[in-house]
Specification:
- The protein has 133 residues and is an all-alpha fold.
- Helix 1 runs antiparallel to helix 2.
- The longest helix has 40 residues.
């Protein structure tokens, strides 16, 4: 069996935090080792959900843009994280323009609320949790 990236990241982070960092003299080196370990733990969390979160966001962005009458000329690029991120960036730029219209005087208040709800849910789905120390 080939271990998943999140398991490897967590294992390496544990070694850094529990074995290596405590054996480095206090100061910059010890702090750096601990910081790298925390980043690895957060990256492990992102690994398992990255494509799912981005695919959900992109689909939801397309729905909101369609509801706002925005024609989207962004083709899905596949499930690779880089492709999902590129698609997300283009869709987000279109959402910003739509949000500006919705927030303008005489804009669509319901659409403005829908965008705000999307942003709130998107942030919740991307939330990372620091481990208890």
């Amino acid at each position: 069996m080939i271990p998943e990236a999140d398991a490897l990241l967590n294992l390496a982070a544990g070694k850094l935090l529990m074995e290596i960092a405590p054996n480095i003299a206090p100061g910059y080196g010890q702090g750096s080792a601990s910081t790298v370990a925390i980043v690895m733990i957060l990256a492990a969390q992102e690994y398992g959900r990255a494509a799912d979160v981005r695919a959900w966001e992109n689909a939801r962005l397309r729905e909101i843009l369609a509801r706002g009458g925005v024609a989207v000329d962004v083709a899905p690029g596949g499930l690779a994280i880089a492709a999902l991120n590129a698609e997300n960036a283009a869709l987000t730029r279109a959402l910003i323009a739509l949000q500006e219209k919705a927030e303008a005087p005489g804009g669509d208040n319901a659409l403005e609320r829908e965008i705000a709800a999307f942003l709130k849910e998107s942030a919740a789905r991307r939330r990372l949790h620091l481990p208890a120390m």
